[in-house]
Write a structure and sequence with these properties.
This protein is of the alpha+beta class. Helix content is 22%, strand content 35%. It contains two helices and ten strands, in the order E-E-E-H-E-E-H-E-E-E-E-E. Strands 2-10-9-1-3-6 form a six-stranded antiparallel beta sheet. A four-stranded antiparallel beta sheet has the order 7-5-4-8, with no helix packed on it. Strand 9 and strand 10 form a beta hairpin. Helix 1 runs antiparallel to helix 2. The radius of gyration is 15 Å and the shape is globular.
Length: 165
C-alpha cells in the first residue's frame, strides 16, 4: 500500500528531502491517505496535479497558534491547536476531495472535514506557543515509507511561496 500525507510545513524543507520518522519538521497535517497499489510515479503525478490549484491558493494564509492540547491514545501527544482559518479549512477540504477523486482511502476519516482539528505536534523542545503567528508557506506531499522503508519520510512534491523553500 502507498501511504501518503499532505502537510503544511512550518519549517524549511526541500523537494526530495528525506528525514527520519522521528525527526519531522514542524507541520500541520492536512490529510493522510492510502493510495492503494497504484503505480508510484503515476499516483504521485495524479494527486499532485489535483492538489496544484488548492495548494497554490492557500499559500500565504496567515495562521494563529491556539491553545495547547493533548492528542493520541491517552492524550500522550502534546500539540498546539491552530485557530480556525477559512483558507486552511478550504485547503483541507479540497485535498480530501482530491484523495476521493483518486480513489484513495483516508486513514483517519473521523478527523477530516467537520472533524478536522489542525494542530502542530511538539517534537521535544521544538514547538509553537499560543498566540504565535505563522504563515502557510509550504504545502507538501510526503511519502510515509519511501521504497518500503518505514523509518524515513520523503518529500515528493513541494508547493511554496515564490523564492522560499
Amino acid at each position: 500500500m502507498r501511504n501518503l500525507i499532505f502537510v503544511a510545513f512550518l519549517e524549511p524543507v526541500a523537494d526530495g528531502q528525506v528525514f527520519l520518522r522521528t525527526e519531522w519538521p514542524l507541520h500541520i497535517t492536512l490529510v493522510r491517505f492510502d493510495a492503494g497499489r497504484q503505480d508510484s510515479a503515476d499516483v504521485t503525478e495524479r494527486i499532485a496535479g489535483l492538489a496544484d490549484a488548492p495548494a497554490a491558493a492557500a499559500l500565504g494564509a496567515a495562521l494563529t497558534v491556539g491553545e495547547d492540547a493533548a492528542f493520541g491514545r491517552n492524550g500522550s501527544v502534546p500539540v498546539n491547536l491552530i485557530q480556525p482559518q477559512p483558507d486552511l479549512q478550504a485547503l483541507h477540504g479540497q485535498l480530501v476531495a482530491a484523495v476521493d477523486a483518486l480513489g484513495g482511502r483516508i486513514l483517519t476519516p473521523a478527523h477530516t472535514l467537520a472533524g478536522y482539528r489542525p494542530h502542530v505536534s511538539h517534537h521535544g523542545d521544538k514547538r509553537l506557543h499560543p498566540g504565535d503567528a505563522v504563515v502557510l508557506d509550504r504545502v507538501a506531499l510526503v511519502d510515509m515509507a519511501p521504497d518500503g522503508d518505514h523509518t524515513i519520510r520523503r518529500v515528493l512534491r513541494l508547493w511554496s511561496r515564490e523564492g522560499e523553500s
